[in-house]
Amino acid sequence: IYYKNTKEQLYRMKTNGSNKSLLSDKRIASMTIDQDWIYYSVGSGTSGGEGENSTYVSNDIYRMKLDGSQSEKLFTGKVGVIVSDGGRLFFIHNDVDLWSINFDGSEAGLVKNKVYTIRAVSSGWIYTTTDLSSNSIAITRIKTDGTVTQNLVTLDSDNTMLELTGNKIYYTVYNNGESEIHSMDLDGKNQQYVIN
Hints:
Oligomer: single chain
Number of helices: 0
Helix content: under 10%
């Protein structure tokens, strides 16, 4: 199990809780694991708040082996969430643009302008949310090469939780102060209420 402690330091341990070891004492802002490597960005400073309400300025992309060895910098710049599709890393650069980079740090470049969040990557698509107004967002998917963008569903909310499981997207809908879980296919079809 790989996890961050309350100081945002990266640890690993066995599933039974034994062999806990510190991999990095840096403040890890975002991370993803792909095969034998951990890809991560380092946080610096806060922009207000405490605990879950605090946010870090995430700078640079690094990688290290699963045991914490061979740490190296892959990309220099302001970085948001990092995700992997098994072939490349995708991340938000300078808070506004979707970029991708090879696992070795080569061929970093713009995929699409004006993308502010990444929620997941699956089967050649990047799933994100797009603000439509102060109280309306769309769950959107973008081809990993940036050529196609599709709005899958519009929500009367300023936020949603989103999880891809198998061939389904599960997402929250806030209705009269209550949160409901809905699902849909990866292409936005078969939208249905699950539970509240």
